Amino acid sequence: MLEGFRETSFEHDGKARAVYRRGRGPGVLVIHEIPGITPEVAAFARSVADAGFDVALPVLFGTPGRPFSVPYVAGQMIRACVSREFAVLAAHRSSPITDWLRALCRALHAEAGGPGVGAIGMCLTGNFALALMLDPALLAPVLSQPSLPFPLGRDRRAALHVSPDELAGLKRRVREEGACVLGLRFSEDPAVPPERFATLRRELGPGFEAIEIDSSLGNPWGIPRTAHSVLTKDLVDVAGHPTRAARDRVLAFLAERLRAASQPQRPPPGS
Fold this sequence. Notes:
With 271 residues, this protein is of the alpha/beta class. The protein has one domain: Rossmann fold. Helices cover 34% and strands 18% of the residues. It is built from eight helices and eight strands. It has helices at 39-50, 70-82, 97-112, 128-132, 154-158, 164-177, 194-204, 242-258; strands at residues 6-12, 15-22, 27-31, 54-58, 117-122, 138-144, 181-186, 208-213. The longest helix has 17 residues, at 242-258. The protein is globular, with a radius of gyration of 18 Å.
């Protein structure tokens, strides 16, 4: 068991997975990156729970609590690439596992209550939050270094790993409901090319908020050009650091979308 979390299980369509839980408040799904729920991923999930949210951290691959290492990453990457649940090269369709994650979002919303839930995807799972927006319960999607599809070729560099119908649904929610998507990336990260964020800006317009952290050579914070994991491995938890500011913006975004929506509207003055 991860320290400070309780282990539960969730089953949908015949598939059961462990889900670690912590906190109280509006529900937030934290979808871990490759290679799994590392200590850094668990620490981020704790920060979300401690900010006043009911966090659900499903185990999609890897060993919960196992530290990051290059061999561990390589092994889990191979596993994901051959799994039918992860369509790592699909430019214009989402991974099948998003169906299971949508069901988990619905269950989390039913349990936690409130206006809806949030979802934070990272790396391989980064764009999953877009597909989860097909469910109206998802109000706060966060894409941290969304790496699918793998950016092999011009089309995949700009693609969003969702189908045309899913994208149309996202745009409708932005247009009719004021939905918003938050995206995070390092400027020099080859796994998340700038074309991908350009597509999000073009398709979602004011419904996309981007945080792009300077990792170019000679940047004032000394962030390496190899930086990739904004909220976990490459987070520098120091006041004023751009990764700390990005983490704080994620927490504020969740609060705005999940708490502000539940507050009763005050009548206008003089009414």
